[in-house]
Amino acid sequence: MYVCICNQVSDRDIKASIQEGATTMRALYKEHNIGSQCGKCCQCAKKVLNNELLKIAETQFQVA
């Protein structure tokens, strides 16, 4: 699914960036220019970011 149509950024792109270490919207902006055009993608991108970070935190908690 496309999150940012202006810059052709999909949820897969965002998830890949998070797996590579992106943990903030600023990091996603630097890598993908999310929110640099119309800004309508920011809310959806933030949801994807938060969900992925929660998944990572849950797996780390279960391992520990």
TrEMBL record:
Top-level taxonomic group: Bacteria
Ranges annotated as spanning the membrane: none
Domain called BFD-like [2Fe-2S]-binding: residue spans: 2-50
Keywords: 2Fe-2S, Electron transport, Iron, Iron-sulfur, Metal-binding, Transport
Named cofactor requirement(s): [2Fe-2S] cluster
InterPro entries (alphabetical): BFD-associated_ferredoxin (IPR052371), BFD-like_2Fe2S-bd_dom (IPR007419), BFD-like_2Fe2S-bd_dom_sf (IPR041854)
Gene3D superfamilies: BFD-like [2Fe-2S]-binding domain
Signal peptide feature range: none
Record-stated family: Belongs to the Bfd family.
Name this protein carries in UniProt: Bacterioferritin-associated ferredoxin
Originating organism: Marinomonas colpomeniae
Lineage: Bacteria, Pseudomonadati, Pseudomonadota, Gammaproteobacteria, Oceanospirillales
